[in-house]
Amino acid sequence: MIDDSFLSIILYTFFIHISFGLIGGRYERYSKPWARCLYIPIVITIILRRVVGLGYWSVPYFIVVALAGQVLGRRICKETMNHTGNQ
């Protein structure tokens, strides 16, 4: 059930959401740039999941990984901004 392609896409999803979380952390919540940083990686993840051929059983895993990546990226961004004095 879980193979190398699933783990590869999960890791890619995590890292892409971290990077977009870092970018989105600079913007005010619910603004257009913030929303783009939230939805663009979701679309990328959906396309990858469909191309690889993973079924709907994998969706809950991708939701958890996407949320974790966004939260971690935003937290890293906020910590970096606090240490550099930019707010």
Describe, in plain words, how this protein is organized in 3D.
By secondary structure, this protein is mainly alpha-helical. 78% of the residues lie in helices and 0% in strands. The longest helix has 26 residues, at 59-84.
Largest sheet features: none
Reading the helices and strands in chain order gives: HHH
Question: Approximately what portion of the residues adopt beta-strand conformation?
Answer: under 5%
Q: Which class of secondary structure composition applies to the elements?
A: mainly alpha
Amino- and carboxy-terminal Cα gap = 45 Å
Global shape: elongated
Radius of gyration: 14 Å
Low-confidence stretches: none
Number of domains: 1
Total helical segments: 3
Tally of strands:
0
Helix content: over 70%
Q: Mean pLDDT across all residues, rounded?
A: 91
Write the layout of secondary structure elements.
Blueprint: H1 4-24, H2 32-52, H3 59-84
Helix pairs in contact: 1-2, 1-3
